[in-house]
Design goal:
2 domains; 13 strands; about 35% strand; alpha+beta; 6-stranded antiparallel β-sheet
């Protein structure tokens, strides 16, 4: 065995370990070492069996080794990619900072202006918290959508929302034409979504979607029980969902909302 190793090192050169994993030279070195080892043990059939046979055999062995190593490295990369997918989670509790009162300039709102005595009034915002719990990752270009709004009637829930609508990140103001940019969420950084707001003047529920569609304006006209479904997704494959139960009694500062199981 030691004779084989010494002969291989001599044939492969000073960088024998690196050479061992290089195709032709490594194969020739292996064949030379096999020949010397067999001859040292009294085998004399090499005159009739050309060394090229052992060289080719060694090349085949090296190709198999390299193929296995390449496939193994690809599998490790895929496993690492799966392990590093952002893990998003949406949470809500009926308290600050999820429910906050904000003094808003009503004159700047894209709705009919109120009387001068109420140019500034209190809005109560309901927000959802989104956190990325996967260490070493950033959830890139996260967007939040309200995917459904259901109203309870006669013991059953009926869909009120025609199509999913984009929601606004609390960190971002509205952009041009109602556009709201996506958000990058690093590991364990709290980010918030503006879900809806009520105010003391209009006494209504205003979902915080950037584009206000007339078809959605009257969804919350009726007092009663609603379910709101929200989803968040990132371009890295991270995603999360939550459903909230809203009891709307027509009073802007006295409604009930909680996470629905």
């Amino acid at each position: 065995m030691f004779k084989f190793i010494d002969t291989f090192k001599a044939a492969a050169g000073p960088h024998w370990l690196r050479t061992m994993t290089v195709s032709g030279t490594g194969a020739y070195a292996i064949a030379t070492a096999i020949e010397a080892s067999l001859q040292a043990h009294g085998f004399t059939f090499f005159p009739t069996v050309p060394k090229i046979v052992f060289t080719i055999a060694a090349i085949v062995v090296l190709l198999i080794f390299w193929g296995w190593k390449y496939a193994h490295s690809i599998r490790l990369k895929e496993e690492a990619l799966i392990a590093k997918t952002p893990k998003l989670e949406i949470t809500f509790m009926p308290l600050i900072p999820y429910v906050v009162d904000v003094l808003v300039d009503m004159g700047a709102q894209p709705i009919a202006p109120p009387p001068p005595s109420l140019l500034k009034c209190i809005h109560r915002y309901v927000r959802l918290r989104v956190v990325n719990y996967e260490p070493g990752t950033i959830a890139h270009k996260c967007q939040a959508h309200i995917s459904g709004i259901q109203f309870e009637e006669h013991g059953a829930f009926f869909e009120m929302l025609g199509a999913s609508q984009l929601l606004k990140w609390s960190e971002h103001p509205y952009g041009k034409e109602g556009h709201t940019p996506p958000l990058d969420i690093p590991f364990k950084v709290n980010s918030y979504i503006d879900l809806f707001a009520t105010d003391e003047h209009y006494n209504r529920v205003f979902v915080q979607w950037p584009m206000r569609w007339l078809v959605n304006e009257n969804i919350f006209d009726k007092p009663g029980v609603y379910k709101l479904h929200v989803i968040v997704s990132s371009e890295d494959g991270g995603h999360a969902a939550i459903t909230l139960r809203l009891e709307w009694n027509g009073k802007w500062n006295n409604f009930s909302i909680e996470k629905s199981e």
